[in-house]
Write a structure and sequence with these properties.
Layout: E1 2-7, H1 28-36, E2 44-50, H2 60-63, E3 70-74, E4 83-87, H3 104-113, E5 116-120, H4 143-149, E6 154-160, H5 162-175, E7 179-188, H6 194-206, E8 209-211
Parallel strand pairs: 1-2, 1-6, 2-5, 6-7, 7-8
Antiparallel strand pairs: 3-4
């Protein structure tokens, strides 16, 4: 059975948002049309939200650094000295704010069909890109359990942004054993230059994620 994962189509990632994904607004109605397409026969539709505390570790402001600064994350687990390189972002998708809400048409669609909503990024001390887990793969959201409970073995991933949360959610899904496809028409990247897109496609192929 197959599920559609709709990743982070939230106000802060749209044109007037704090961390707008270029052309992100263009996918809102097509994603709704995809959800409602009877030929797809989605067994489950899941929408995800970035859902950060005001002082989340990924916010440049918290570190008194400029937005988009490079940053070395240290594992939040005691006695684990591992690090990961990342980016510090503008404050975005703070819990309970307008920016963290799903785009209004998605809220209406969610209420209409009753699809499940998964939050990620709500632990202050760690970064998240995947809707399944934090970047350290220590904390897991309820997404995998939810899909298993509904006998899902195939997932299709859409939403924002292709090169961050969509990509990482798809890679996690593939590693967990789901047949995984990103529907590129229903996503938009932050970085769309040729070099970035080549690297993205290579990474997806290495992780058995189809880009269709």
């Amino acid at each position: 059975m197959k599920a559609l994962l709709v990743i982070d189509i939230q106000n802060d990632f749209l044109s007037q948002g704090a961390l707008a994904v270029p052309h992100g607004d263009e996918i809102v109605q097509p994603v709704i049309d995809l959800i409602e397409d009877p030929s797809q026969q989605w067994h489950r539709v899941v929408m995800t939200r970035d859902w950060h505390p005001y002082n989340h570790i990924s916010f440049a402001k918290v570190h008194k650094l400029p937005d988009f600064s490079p940053y070395t994350y240290h594992s939040p687990i005691e006695n684990d000295n591992s690090t990961q390189e990342g980016t510090l972002w503008p404050v975005h998708c703070v819990q309970g704010t307008h920016g963290a809400e799903l785009a209004a048409p998605l809220i209406e669609e969610q209420r209409k069909i009753g699809c499940h909503v998964i939050d990620k990024g709500y632990l202050q001390d760690r970064e998240y890109y995947s809707a399944f887990n934090d970047i350290w793969n220590y904390h897991r959201t309820e997404l995998n359990n939810y899909l298993h409970c509904h006998h899902i073995d195939e997932v299709y991933v859409v939403g924002l942004a292709l090169d961050f949360c969509v990509k990482n959610t798809a890679i996690s899904a593939s590693k967990l054993g789901y047949k995984t496809t990103i529907l590129e028409k229903y996503t938009r990247p932050i970085y769309s230059d040729e070099k970035s897109m080549h690297k993205l496609k290579q990474e997806l192929a290495e992780n058995n994620v189809q880009l269709a």
